[in-house]
Amino acid sequence: MHVTDLTVQGFKNISDITLMPDGEYNIIVGKNAQGKTNLLEAIWLMSGCRSFRGTRERDYIGFDKEKMQIIMHFMDARRSQYMIYELMRGGQRKLILNGVIQKSTAAFFEAFRCIVFTPDDIELIQGGPEKRRNFIDLCFSQIKPSYMDYVRRFDAITGQRNAAIRTAIIKKQPLPPLDVWDVQLAEVGAKISFWRRFYVQRLNAACGALYSRITGGNEQLTVEYASQIYKNYEFPDRPDEDMKQKYLDRLTAGAEDDFRVGYTLCGAGRDDVILKINGRSVKEYGSQGQKKSTALVLKLAQAEIFRASMDDAPVILLDDVMGELDADRQSLVLEIVRDMQVFITTCNEEAIISRSRGRTITIAGGSVVGR
Predict the structure, then answer these.
(1) CA 36 to CA 27: how far, in whole Å?
(2) What is the rounded CA–CA span in Å between residue 127 and residue 61?
(3) Reading across the β-sheet that carries 280-281, which strands appear in turn?
(4) Phi and psi for 222 in degrees, rounded to 5?
(5) For the whole model, what pTM was predicted?
(6) Which residues contact 289 (CB under 8 A, 6 or more apart)?
(7) Could you tell me if 85 and 50 are in contact, meaning their C-beta atoms sit under 8 angstroms apart?
(8) 284 Cβ partners below 8 Å, 6+ apart?
(9) Strand partners, 83
(10) What residues contact 153, with CB distance under 8 A and at least 6 apart?
């Protein structure tokens, strides 16, 4: 999968950029606040995901602009496609995929896949469990898009269950019947737990091999899914009625505790992904260098797993991270993403190890200049 043609107008500080990127290697160079990361963000939005910088949609439009428009043509393993993402100052939005108007970005998500790595991704290691759960959910849904429907449904049911509990507390009523939500949560939550663990098993194998290469075999990284409901040896070959019943039993047994605190205490919404180097928690005991290397390996493993599963390669976005890596780690990154289209931002082109092929794109004031 690779971007063949890109036009970005009115997105944040980008005035008008039109590119025909190299099919493999693109270095985006410029001083700070010139629009390098904004260009990566514009590409990322075409994946149907929210901004990796947490930007609200209404803030996509530049301060002095009336509208934002991104037009992108790309090739996947089978055919050429194009997308248009247009947003007006008044809030009107137009999404088009191959000439067909879309109601949401869901179709974008299923059509165009990319992986972004930024300095903030260290939060995957030192942040709370939600960061790691969301990462696993995104990774697996890129392979199985229908999985995200389970996550949305789970969140909605959990919200309704919690609302019923809080309402009873506010009104000083006894614990209300929760069966209608518990049965639904057990069905959906069991499947989410199963598929998260399935993906984490693949992630563990890929991360272990990559991290060993980074450290010359001196350190071993392991990745494990920590479920509140199931022990690892209890997972069957596929989701079944026993999984659902065990989940339901835990919800029922914990209802009084949920009522005491005002929300659902157990289940897939409280699970975590445990990362260890040589048997010790990276979050608790890892050095800053180990945490950065672990975050990088997670993203590289995501790319490897996607390519192996989909017989296609995602587009790779590396935002201001290559310059922080030594030459050996840069070489490993470029080896892993070989045959993938890569966009790399940097303030200092000299900090990136040289490549004989590719394109350098210089940005200043939200526009492409020079080469």
Answers:
(1) 10
(2) 30
(3) 221-226, 272-277, 280-281
(4) -120, 150
(5) 0.88
(6) none
(7) no
(8) none
(9) 72, 97
(10) 184, 188
Tokens of 137: 């959910």
* CA distance readout (Å), 92 to 58, 59, 88, 150, 367: 10, 13, 5, 29, 26
Q: What is the DSSP string of 70-134?
A: EEEEEE-SS-EEEEEEEEETTS-EEEEETTEEESSTHHHHHH--EEEE-GGGGHHHHS-HHHHHH
Reference 362, options 22, 35, 69; nearest CA is 35
Q: What is the mean pLDDT of each run of 10 residues along the chain (371 residues)?
A: 92 89 89 88 91 86 88 91 91 92 90 90 93 94 91 95 94 89 94 95 94 88 93 83 93 93 92 95 92 91 91 89 78 83 85 73 83 51
User: Rounded CA gap, 51 and 66, in Å?
Assistant: 20
- Give the Cα separation of 61 and 243 in Å (integer): 47
Q: Is 247 exposed, middle or buried (0-12, 13-18, 19+ CB in 10 A)?
A: buried
The candidate with the shortest Cα–Cα distance to 37, out of 330, 363, 293, is 363
pLDDT in the model for residue 55? 86
